[in-house]
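Researcher: I'm comparing several assemblies side by side, and this is the next one on my list. It has 936 residues spread over two chains. Same procedure as the others: predict the full complex and return the structure.
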Amino acid sequence: MDSNMDAKMDTKIDANTNEKTISRRQVLKGTGALVVAFNLFDPVSQVLAQVAPGAPGAANDEPQADALDSWIAIGRDGKVTVFTSKVDLGTGIETALSQIVAEELDVPFKAIHMEVGDTTKTVDQGVTAGSRTIERAGPQLRQAAAATRQQLLKMASAKLAVPIDRLTVTDGVVSVMGNGKKVSYGSLVGGKPFNVQIPATGVGWDLKVAPDARVKSPNDYKIVGTSVPRVDLPTKFTASFVYTQDVRIPGMLHGRVVRPATVNSKPASVDEDSVKDIPGIVKIVREGSFLAVVAQTEWAAIQAAKALKVTWTTPETKLPANSDAVYDYLLKTKSFAQRPVVNRGNADAAISQAAKSYEATFRWPFQMHGMMAPSCAVADVQGDKTTVYAPSQGPFDTRKRVATLLGVPEDSVQVIYREAAGCYGRLGTDDAAEDAVVMSRAVGKPVRVQWMREDEHGWEPKGPAQLLTVRAAVDASGNVVAWDFLDRSFPWTESGGQPLIASRQVGIKGQGQGALNGTGGGGDTYTFENQRIIAAAIPWVQPDPTPLRTSPLRAPGDLARVFASESFMDELAAAQGADPLQFRLHYAAKNQRAVDCLNAVGKLANWQARPAPAPAASGNIAKGRGIAVSARSTTVVAATAEVEVDRSTGEVTVKRVAVAHDCGLIINPDGLKNQIEGNVIQGTSRALMEEVKFDASGIHSLDWASYPIIRYEKIPSVDIVLIDRKDMPALGGGEPSIGPIPAAIANAIFDATGARLREAPFTPERVLAAMRSGARSTRA
Amino acid sequence: MARISLRVNNQTRVVEADPQTPLLYVLRDDLELHGPRFGCGLGQCGACTVIMDGKAVRSCSVAVSAAQNTKITTLEGLGTLEHPHPLQTAFIQEQAAQCAYCMNGMILVAKVLLDKNAHPSDDEIKQALNGNLCRCGSHLRVIRAVKRAAGEPVSA
């Protein structure tokens, strides 16, 4: 139960020690309170205590990538501590990374302990995002583990006076083949640093660590590829886990933000007397247009933030009047960046000369991350040292932003990751960290900030709206000869180091127009003779602050792109009278992994070949099935959906979803299935019901009643087939499988009713309207 | 401020609080419990659920004064890491969570359900849990965990 002990220790750290003032240097010197907190991992503290300043990894206060000691420490009892800036966002990545290290190091899984996301203890491996942790950080840790194993073998060879090639390792014990001599990792190095330098080049996701260290063949894996139970869940189910929300530090006060209703609105005047009768108010914090309340108790802060009388400026800028205005703007506004994903042949010429051509436009709304836990952070700004506890996807990015906000050197800021609820993209958690920093600076004490639900819904950065146009040409024999796909999306205005709300409110300006919404694509699974696929970013410049600011939302942009491209493929198949699966297989023939996924999901779903829509059946409930395939980064997923549509109400119920999933080598099959089930359910929710409602006066989706998400009554059953490719690297599984879900559902609705949905979400009103319009295809 | 006595997890705890304070903040901030969690403060999501006199209630929507003279059980009161309650064991066995922030509510609502109905059907489980939101999409695993805790066969 090692992992359980870790969490309990965390409790002690947060409750009883002053971890905030402990730098890695102090830890290394063994002078910090953390050593006390590590009492159950005494050997580790011994290791850390003996890494001398100036040794590799201790050249300055920050761990260096080229020092083995920055990655792995081994205690006298063989316990292994792994240091990583990759954080567990609730997906179980800590368990999967532990498996990778245990495997390569030849130690039992239970010997691994992860030190995660503390900017003073870990090397910056880049933000935890994009389903890239297994793909990028996995090899970094695997190679570090392999280098560690090599070093241990070298030490064992010297100690036992036998050549390395006569040594073998089992469960952290090195044995000499043939003569029974043994020595454990713990007795070789326990309590001491390695003081070994390893090659390391690049930064973040592209960091390469000890690339030449020899690794195991996947055929010899014993831990990787097995469904090791998650290390965090027992503590979570028994309430002994410490979320950011549970962090308490001595003298801590409680803060709540006070936000305007709409874009570019600022506090013109604040009546502090309006809250003077609420006991426990410490300060009304006002800086630039930042406004917040700090109080002794959480309840006082909540009441005061609500009761505070504020006169807000009436801004000249307004939000768009409705979603039609947004799509109109997307259509008519010139893009500031374009990414050609595929450009083959001449799509324009082929379409203008074709026997038949088709065109359709699809709409995807602003959607929310909808984190269950409103954003929360704890900050302590004390003189020349700042400590922040936050559920940051990128603790080092947060450190940089906080340092800029405070105007202090980065190394004076320590960001410590603590988990929150599943975030599914960058949302308000880093904003809350900035809020807490501004409040703590104003009152000179640690402040815990938690957004209220309306703050979260109103001010989380939204998943961008998209408008997608697809054209295709078909020759006289019914072959698709041209494909032209244009994704017009808002960028992420809040990514790439852009200042967040508090920074902007105190006067720090954002730079540039933001980054493209994801990797692009849309029909790139297929090969057409003439094919053009372009992702375009449309400027979304609203004055600060704006509640329609944008950021990556799980599988950024992919749901819309796959909805558009795979719906359109379905239309083309229907227009040619072809079975949707066979039609896809034909055009995906050059993409073997897509073909394999399509065939696997067809088998799993017992797919019988016939064209869509299904023959009309009598009765009020129409049944249909749909299919979609997509790739995100290098992971390929195919999905089928079976739906029932109530013809009288337009209500759609997704009964069953089947998924075939290929993310290369699989680390933890049950962990992966857990991710896929979650993707299917969240994807169903986003397809059927999720749309941010707003008008010129502000956001109207401010709680779970006005922004409903899926409930138990609407959950589909989920069947999964995993395609394990031992000959491939391990790739991402956190989000690719959400991509095809809305498309599969839309295609199933078409199969059931003959009605083609071109706008998400597929609400009963939209389904009824599509059924009434009777549009079956869009022959241009 | 008032002196308020609460009976939580079979212990009597006395706090000084504004009687109107929602029970949630007293449990979390004064009694330092981690089980009940703030999700919406509006009674919409269920993350703050506690069991009060045998019923699952939203602690964000109950004034602490109204919780006096009741028996309150939080997730901490079910079982511990060393001695988990059968429901907690079933949730571990089914790996029934991702972030698990909402699971406090799921487990406690399931506890109340199983106390009344030892062998609920899938539909009864869904109905009981329908008011509890989960963003990670762990619903299917939760249903399996509740069935497992009820001693029902579970298909993966």
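Model: For your comparison table: Residues 1-60, 776-780 of chain A have pLDDT under 50 and may be disordered.
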